[in-house]
Design a protein that fits this description.
The complex is a heterodimer. By secondary structure, chain A is mainly alpha-helical. Chain A is built from 8 helices and no strands. Chain A folds into 2 domains: 102 residues, RNA polymerase sigma factor, region 2, helix turn helix motif (Rna Polymerase Sigma Factor, Chain: A); 65 residues, Arc Repressor Mutant, subunit A. In chain A, helix 1 crosses helix 2, helix 2 packs across helix 4 and helix 3 packs across helix 4. The chains are: A mainly alpha, B alpha+beta.
Chain lengths: 195, 245
């Protein structure tokens, strides 16, 4: 596993990637096409992967990706490297834009609250550096400590953009019950990550 | 951890906002607090970081080689001199939001017709008439995935600006401040943004010169009374790009 074999060289390389991405975003904020191209070449595959994961449709994912880079172009000035990691910032835009599309589509072809259905594809990549891989391992460990229905609901919200009421419908439980599952899961998750 | 004694319920609300579990009033309230309360905004950011680790597992997939061309064309980066073409392409690209913007733009244009005689910062009366062709630009100023906090229209003919507050809720002890963000140089304040009717502001020449198609506007969350330094001190909570109508 990447986490177990991380070296100083890996970490330095991850930091360099992150710094390069921060600089590129600063360039985009100043209106540089070259900088946007740089951000694109560093992150498009990762962001497209996120779009495909959420939308499960190539055409929709391509439209979302275009939308995402327009958003990056428009909002790079609001990225603050002191407050957020560039990869998280970009991935959050990708997830939000993809979920916007999913919701606009209206129909959810396949909704599941089964925690096992969303299991990892396991290929950490260039963008997801060693640090991210460690964060990932830790989050997975913590999710594993939750009840299956709690983890399943959290994953469904994250990847399928389901609201509380949609989760309650999908799980055929009262809204209050679903809220209570998710909140207990989130509290436990935070406590586990904080340890 | 960033857990500086934040109320556990607030921590949960931040996580619910990040996961997009909330709807209706609860969603609006959470977004308002994200804008107004730095401690809550920090908790939102912390949950973004925590949960983003779920995305570390998503396998990267190379998009089609033509994809960059689509992105570039959408922004018309290749021909920045040709503003008309650029903006037409942008408008085409943003067609998803065009209907909403057009409706807002139409009401603002109507409002402008009656507001033409006003000077300084005054309330705009309800629309009653139409106007002829003018050099109008409009921007919806929204945060990441939020409804617009305000819609700003610029009349380049007479160097005026109309600010229409939208999903903006007052918060004791805080103010929103509107900024123009030049391509080069520091942001310049366009004044405070408070809930209420649309307001018209006549701009000084140097500020008016900064407002063009493609210009970025931003809203920051500041302490009451706005930034004391002339530059945004609080977080930028929403941005928008001026486009011709």
């Amino acid at each position: 596993m990447a986490g177990a074999t991380s070296t100083n060289a890996d970490r330095a390389s991850g930091d360099a990637d992150r710094q390069a991405l921060v600089r590129a975003l600063a360039g985009v904020a100043e209106g540089s096409e070259v900088a946007l191209r740089d951000v694109y070449s560093r992150t498009a595959a990762k962001l497209y992967g996120i779009c495909l994961r959420i939308l499960s449709d190539r055409q929709e994912a391509e439209d979302a990706l275009q939308d995402i880079f327009v958003t990056i172009w428009k909002r790079a000035g609001t990225f603050d490297a002191e407050r957020a990691s560039p990869v998280t910032w970009l991935a959050t835009i990708a997830r939000n834009r993809s979920i916007d599309r999913l919701r606009a589509r209206g129909v959810r072809p396949f909704v599941t609250l089964d925690a096992a259905a969303d299991v990892a594809d396991t290929r950490p990549d260039v963008v997801a550096n060693i640090e991210a891989a460690q964060d990932r391992d830790r989050l997975m460990e913590c999710l594993d400590t939750l009840e299956a229905r709690q983890a399943g609901a959290i994953r469904a919200a994250f990847f399928q953009g389901l609201t509380y009421s949609e989760l309650a419908d999908a799980g055929a439980v009262p809204l209050g019950t679903m809220k209570s599952w998710v909140r207990r899961g989130l509290l436990r998750l935070k406590a586990c990550l904080g340890e | 951890m960033t857990d500086s004694g934040i109320d556990p319920d607030d921590g949960l609300l931040a996580a619910e906002l990040v996961l997009r579990l909330l709807e209706g009033d609860a969603l609006h309230d959470a977004r308002r607090r994200e804008v107004a309360e730095p401690a809550f905004a920090a908790e939102v950011a912390a949950w973004h970081e925590r949960l983003a680790a779920l995305l570390a597992d998503v396998a990267p997939i190379e998009p089609d080689a033509a994809m960059w061309g689509r992105v570039s064309a959408a922004l018309a980066l290749r021909d920045p001199r040709n503003n008309v073409v650029e903006l037409k392409r942008k408008v085409r690209f943003w067609r998803a939001s065009a209907a909403a913007l057009t409706a807002i733009a139409a009401s603002l244009l109507l409002g402008l017709g009656l507001g033409m005689g006003l000077r300084g910062t005054e309330s705009i009366q309800p629309p009653a008439t139409t106007v002829g062709p003018r050099q109008m630009l409009i921007a919806a100023i929204d945060g990441e995935g939020t409804p617009p906090l305000a819609v700003v229209s610029v009349d380049r003919t007479d160097k005026s600006l109309i600010v229409t507050p939208a999903a903006l809720t007052p918060v004791a002890g805080h103010d929103h401040e509107l900024w123009i963000v030049p391509v080069a140089g520091d942001p310049r304040s366009l004044g405070l943004l408070r809930p209420g009717p649309a307001r018209r502001i006549v701009l000084a020449d140097d500020l008016a010169g900064l407002l063009a198609g493609g210009s970025t506007l931003a809203v920051s969350a500041e302490d009451e009374g706005g930034s004391r330094t002339g530059l945004p001190q609080g977080p930028i909570v929403a941005t928008g790009t001026l486009r011709p109508v």
